[in-house]
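Page 37, continued from 36.
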């Protein structure tokens, strides 16, 4: 998984420490920590959709135990 995705996930979780909802304040926190947050979230969603359709991870270290699905 690209480090950008991991950073986006960490930023998302950190923002949840302050805001439990996905509200405006939550996204402002995300953008404060990661100015490209919206782009990264879009890219991650696109990648997850790709996984749903094709089921083949683009990166070998993507998700553990995907082969059993
Ligand atoms: Zn969340």
């Amino acid at each position: 998984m690209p480090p950008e995705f991991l950073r986006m996930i960490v930023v998302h979780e950190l923002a949840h420490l302050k805001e439990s909802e996905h509200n405006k304040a939550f996204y402002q926190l995300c953008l404060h920590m990661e100015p490209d947050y919206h782009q990264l979230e879009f890219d991650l969603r696109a990648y997850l959709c790709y996984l749903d359709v094709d089921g083949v991870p683009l990166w070998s270290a993507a998700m553990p135990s995907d082969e059993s699905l």
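The two ends are 19 Å apart (CA to CA). Flag for discussion at group meeting. The CA atoms of residues 15 and 29 lie 6 Å apart.
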